[in-house]
Amino acid sequence: MPPKKKKSGKKKKSAKAKTPTVIDGISTEEMSKEQLEEHIVRLREELDREREERNYFQLERDKVNTFWEITKRQLEEKKAELRNKDREMEDAEERHQLEIKVYKQKVKHLLYEHQNNISELKAESAVQLRLAQDEHHVDEKDLRKDKRGLKVELKEQELSHEDIIKNLKKTHDEQVTTMRADFERQAREIEAKYERKMKALRDELDLRRKTEIHEIEERKNGQINTLMKNHEKAFSDIKNYYNDITLNNLALINTLKEQVEDMKKKEERMEKQMAEVMAENKRLVEPLQKAKEEVEDLRKQLANYDKDKQSLASAKARLKVMEEDYKGLHWEHEVLEQRFEKLQQERDELYRKFVKAIHEVQQKSSFKNLLLEKKLGALADTLEKKEAQLNEVLSASNLDPTALTVVTRKLEDVLDSKNSAIKDLQYELARVCKAHNDLMRTYEAKLSQFGIPTEELGFKPLESTVGGQALGQGPAGLVSAPS
Prior knowledge:
Layout: H1 2-15, E1 22-23, E2 26-27, H2 33-241, H3 250-301, H4 305-396, H5 401-449
Antiparallel strand pairs: 1-2
Helix pairs in contact: 2-4, 3-4, 4-5
């Protein structure tokens, strides 16, 4: 293709020699030799590249043609294979139809043979049934004959057995009389032995009950003594620290008092329950004694061995029930004692907490009273110093009346504020003293409630006063007097 272009270019040059060709904006006439050589080299490179592309496209075309021929040949082969498969499927279908016909004929032959076999078997079974019936009739006749013979033998055996039974009854009566005499003797021995055992058991149980009651009384007396000592110690501690109890923990004290009252009520209830259990124990001892007496009366009234045995069994059962009741009551008594000890421990713990809380409240209240007194004294000293300084300043400065009135007004304001602070502190001190007095009255009321006179404290409680003046009887702040 490039040579043709060159030829056409030459023809055009020859045809139109006057119109020179323009390359890169420069005509060939104006180009130098080197530019023309460069242009020729570039044209040759383009020619080589075009030839390579043509060869590549020709190769691609040949590949496409070969692929097309190969696929066409493969398509023809697959079509031939498809035709062969169709023919094979037709042949297989024909063979399958033939086989179905053959199997149908075989099935027909088998059904015919099966019907023949069934008919033969029915005939054979009918013949065998008739033979079995004949054999059964023969066997039935033989069995009837044997039955008549067995009946005769049975009658003979019954007669012989009657004689044997009469002899056995005679021997059995003799044995029963001897055994009854032996059993009566053994029953008398057993009765005497168990009477001795019951007497020993009764003595042992009485002794054990007396010892247990004595131990319980000693243990309870020891617990009562320890409780009295603890109460005396606690009261002595309360006497030493009751003066410094304040308002802020009265709610805690009231709750603790209620808990102590609940514990006392529980203690009283437990004591009542223990008394009831002891009464129940005593009440059950008498029925046990009565039951034993009834057993003895019933034993005396018995006539033969069977009645003796039944009465002894019933007496044993009642005795066992009474013993189980006694064990149950004893166990309940121990449980109640354990609960009573646990409640006493809880009461002692609450009492210790109560004393500890009272000590803390006393320390806090004493510290607060000390701070208030120190503040009050400091404010009084400060007031005296300020008044002295003010008098010195006024005497030293010769102020005019207007300035003096202004200064006096300011001074009066300061004094009013200080007086109000002093009044607040005095009110706080009066409130604390009133709370102390209310607490004293509450304590005295609680002592009287528990039946403890105030004379046994060993000292006379002091009532606080503010400036030598008696306080009112109404409630102070958060503290209320007991009703």
